[in-house]
Design the sequence.
């Protein structure tokens, strides 16, 4: 196995749930998996009740058979700890294992994920079965990796979670004075005089304390991470050579994946873009880039995607012919060393009975299965990309705390959504085939030619200094609006925004000016005139060059886009939401100045190009075929977006 990857073959397969089927189907599964070129099956994700039918009594024999059968057919296993979904006996006999909503109601069993992460009963049973699985299978020849739980994201607001929250807060703030200070409890008579008074954000009369809300989001992520680590350590203790992962959900707000990823041996992703969404390919690319970046650029694993439709969607349109192959190649191009699906065989019963699968209800004589077989063949030819990297000259900053904070209650514009800002800045780069990584604001940025900050409302002092230093040392930076506003306690930084970036950007903001949807006009000799909407800022240049100015509305005459030289570098500030073409021009100018170049210039509009190792992947997202010019000819580099 290449030391830079977790595999020596491109992994291909999906979730395999043989416990839903009689033995004769297992035999057919093996034959079909071989036919399709499947080499990895994710097993046991929701098998807890079958593995432990009554408390403490394990029935592993059927799983022995499954693993042996897969092994005999040359198929590896990603073995799950089944702890995402508790057996009914647990919730029935120990109702305290059930999660509680903010309003005090209990989410009961009959679905999945019915557990309180703080429940000691849940934890003990989860640890015991993880340890038992580790003990039994850690040296099984089929085992390729551990898959801990599934899509962690359950949040509970019960009294046990309240107690755990207090402990978490004591570590963060030391004593009650620290907590009162951090949460600003002088406001609205919220001062706490005893730790027992401190509770999770529950159903309240009016707006919740924002820092309490934010801290609970951080705590909920850390609490789940503790469960992941407990299970990881148990399975690992039986054989440290087996890599451990859990399946992330891309831009999922509930878990801070920067913190999680460093606890994993490899990062894996579940992604379900909507085939009806014209921007799905862009969102897919963005999620792939995030996943690669979470793993520090190392190869990652596409753990789940649907080969057809996703049964939970309002309109579960299947992927059109070839689309699953296209999106699978996109993942490999953007750094995946494996492409798996949910799921192998379509269930005939249960909540997901209408979900797409590699073997659909129609059986192997189907378009979907034929395409799966083709994909298996194509992926098998790509072994020489294994372990190679995707080079990126641009970093887009992404921070879970900044995301959570900007979407707390009582922000100036409730329609100002963090991911919209990320998408707006990602889109022109993606369209121009300029590859971008995502980076944490405190990460080392020195290898990037350009750093893009779509929105960084909340920022730590360390991150702010990091960005300033990056530019001082010659970096190019583009920052979007409403950035640098608060500190990690959600305390507004005073004296004119954005306090930590004022010198860097050469400007001072007095007022944020959220707008109704009516666009404003903006004049710019350099960029061409454009419109902007939703957001503006009452600001004054203090050294920066004004690149664009509002010419209508209450901010007429106020700068909308500025550029400042700072140290050896250059920082742009975009104080509004320009129309897409104008934002593309801004980013194009910044890329040009920074020397960040497309993988291949001048490609037809919906053709995506990604360089991975010494290969360039070209992906046509258009329905029609396109003619590509002779790529062997040296073309003039062009960074116009
Ligand atoms: C994922 C999950 C799978 C399956 C799939 C359906 O969220 O991990 O178990 O439910 O969605 O799209």
Sequence:
């Amino acid at each position: 196995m290449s030391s830079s990857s977790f595999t020596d073959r491109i992994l291909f397969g999906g979730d395999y749930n043989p416990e839903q089927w009689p033995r004769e189907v297992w035999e057919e599964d093996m034959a079909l998996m071989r036919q399709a070129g499947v080499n990895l099956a994710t097993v046991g994700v929701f098998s807890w009740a079958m593995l432990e039918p009554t408390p403490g009594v394990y029935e592993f024999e059927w799983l022995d058979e499954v693993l042996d059968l897969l092994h005999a057919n040359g198929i590896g296993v990603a073995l799950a700890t089944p702890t995402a979904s508790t057996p009914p006996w647990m919730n029935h006999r120990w109702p305290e294992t059930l999660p509680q909503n903010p309003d005090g109601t209990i989410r009961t069993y009959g679905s999945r994920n019915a557990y309180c992460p703080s429940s000691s009963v849940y934890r003990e049973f989860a640890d015991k079965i993880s340890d038992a699985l580790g003990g039994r299978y850690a040296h099984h020849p089929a085992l390729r990796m551990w898959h801990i739980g599934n899509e962690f994201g359950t949040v509970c607001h019960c009294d046990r979670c309240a107690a755990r929250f207090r402990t978490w807060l004591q570590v963060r703030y030391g004593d009650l004075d620290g907590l009162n200070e951090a949460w600003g409890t002088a406001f609205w008579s919220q001062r706490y005089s005893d730790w027992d008074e401190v509770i999770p954000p529950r159903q309240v009369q009016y707006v919740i304390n924002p820092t309490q809300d934010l801290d609970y989001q951080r705590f909920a992520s850390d609490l789940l991470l503790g469960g992941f680590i407990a299970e990881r350590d148990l399975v690992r203790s039986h054989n440290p050579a087996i890599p451990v992962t859990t399946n992330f959900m891309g831009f999922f707000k509930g878990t801070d994946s920067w913190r999680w990823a460093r606890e994993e041996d490899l990062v894996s992703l579940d992604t379900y873009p909507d085939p009806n969404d014209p921007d799905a390919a862009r969102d897919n690319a963005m999620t792939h880039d995030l996943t690669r970046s979470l793993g520090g650029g190392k190869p990652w694993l596409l753990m789940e995607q649907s080969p057809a439709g996703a049964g939970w969607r309002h309109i579960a349109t299947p992927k059109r012919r070839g689309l699953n192959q296209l999106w699978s190649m996109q993942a490999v191009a953007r750094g995946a060393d494996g492409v798996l699906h949910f799921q192998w065989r379509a269930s005939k019963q249960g909540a997901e009975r209408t979900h797409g699968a590699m073997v659909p209800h129609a059986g192997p004589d189907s378009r979907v299965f034929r395409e799966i077989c083709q994909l298996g063949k194509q992926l098998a030819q790509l072994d020489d990309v294994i372990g190679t990297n995707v080079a990126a000259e641009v970093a887009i900053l992404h921070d879970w705390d900044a995301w959570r904070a900007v979407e707390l209650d009582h922000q100036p514009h409730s329609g100002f959504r963090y991911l919209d800002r990320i998408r707006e800045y990602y889109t022109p780069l993606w369209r121009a085939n300029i590859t971008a990584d995502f980076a944490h604001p405190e990460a080392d940025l020195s290898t990037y030619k350009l750093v893009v900050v779509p929105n960084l409302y909340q920022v730590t002092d360390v991150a702010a200094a990091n960005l300033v230093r990056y530019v001082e040392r010659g970096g190019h930076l583009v920052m979007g609006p409403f950035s640098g506003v608060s500190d990690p306690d959600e305390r507004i930084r005073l004296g004119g925004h954005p306090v930590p970036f004022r010198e860097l950007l050469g400007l001072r903001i007095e007022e944020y000016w959220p707008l109704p949807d009516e666009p404003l006009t903006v004049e710019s000799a350099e960029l061409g005139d454009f419109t902007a909407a939703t957001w503006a800022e009452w600001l004054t240049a203090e050294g920066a060059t004004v690149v664009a100015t509002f010419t209508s509305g209450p901010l007429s005459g106020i700068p909308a886009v500025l550029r400042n030289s700072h140290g050896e570098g250059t920082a742009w500030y975009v104080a509004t939401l320009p129309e897409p073409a104008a934002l593309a021009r801004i980013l194009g100018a910044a890329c040009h100045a920074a020397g960040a170049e497309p993988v291949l210039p001048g490609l037809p509009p919906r053709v995506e190009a990604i360089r991975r190792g010494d290969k360039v992947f070209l992906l046509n997202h258009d329905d029609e075929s396109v003619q590509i010019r002779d790529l062997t000819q040296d073309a003039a580099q062009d960074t116009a977006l």
